[in-house]
Each structure stands twice: as structure tokens, then as C-alpha cells.
Amino acid sequence: MNNTASKARILVVDDEVGLATEISVALRAAGYMTRVEHNGADALRTILEAKPDLVLLDIMLPGMNGFDVGAEAIAKLGVPIIFMTARDAAEDKMRGLTIGADDYVTKPILMGELLLRVRAVLRRTGVMIAPLAIGDLLINEDEASVTYAGEEIKLTNTEYRLLGELARARGRVLSKNYLLTQVWGYDAFDPNLVEVHMSSLRKKLEHAGCDANELIKTKRGLGYMIKAPTVAPSVAA
Question: Does residue 120 carry a pLDDT above 50?
């Protein structure tokens, strides 16, 4: 699936059906196309036939484990792989990276972190990432630009990163503390800083004609979120 002019296609492989579905939905909300498999043999067959842009691969799979699937997939196609596993032993990480995996994440999966790792691997492998579209709002992260109904919205770097975090996490509430850490890199919690920049971001979106309060929902006592689109749990690519 070498789709440099369209959405990147990602294969999610995990025998936990609920987790695989959750990851797939989050990826699709972030603008990717997905397919899901739940065992090693089916995963390898899909990889060799569909040639995905990236594989998120659990290690503990029935039948054929993730290490064996990954080793064969990399040897035959050189497909980028991010291993996902509950294991956190150093030797397991070393084995995965020695096989040729691009990255390694441990469970429980933090969706925000996983999306950032996915984007980083796709960029390194030269895959063009489709802009995030939310109605008439378009966030082009390759060009670091935001448009609404075709008109560019001038945002500060902080406002742009704030909007990007919310857009990539569509359907999930992001706390002020999380946003502060991801956007500003601070460990200290200062909710006023987030609120001030959120207010400024909303004003600029409103000025461009976007209903910012409808777009960015405030969950009192929890944080902020952009509602995810209604999507099917999984799609065969």
C-alpha cells in the first residue's frame, strides 16, 4: 500500500478484539485507513498481499508470534513495523529492534502517544500523511497550515499544536495537564495557560466562520475534546 498521494494504510494486529478495534477507530479518526487481524498467520498473509504502509503488531499472537511475523514481513517487503506488547523486558525490545522494527510500545496503549509514533514512522519512511479533515476545517501537518472552507487561519505555533493534539485524539477527552505536557512540555500543572490559549484558538476559529464551541467541546472537570466521526469498527482495505 504505497499511497504517497492518499491516506496511509495501517494494519492493526492484536488478538484482543476490543483493543484492536479501539486502535483502528482512533487511527481512522486521525485520517488513516485501517485493517484488523487477530492472529499471526492471517496477519502475515495480509501483509504480503496488501503491502501496508505500516503494521502495528502485537507480539503474543496465537499460532505464529509477532516476532516471526515481523521478521518474515521485513525480510520480504521491508514493511515498517511498530511492535505492541504487554512485555516490557529489555531483551524483548532488543529482539524486536534487531529484527528491524521501527518502534516499540508497551501496553496499556496510550492512544495519543501511539498516534505520535505512527506519524513519526510514516514520516521517516517517506509516506505522505493525509491532512486531518473535520468538516470544512483542514489541518495539513506536513505544511503546518490550517484552513477553514478554503481560507487559511493564521495561528500561533502553540495554537496550532493545541488544535493538532485535539484533532489527532478525536473522540477522546484530553486533560489540561496532558495538553500542557504535550504542547508546552511542562511537568507542572497550570490550567490557566491552557485556558488562555484555548480561548484565543476558539476566537480565531470563530472569526474564520467555524463554530468553535461546537467543534471543541469543554468537558467540565475533565478537559477538552473534538467529537469523533461515526465510523464502523474496522474496514477491510
Answer: yes
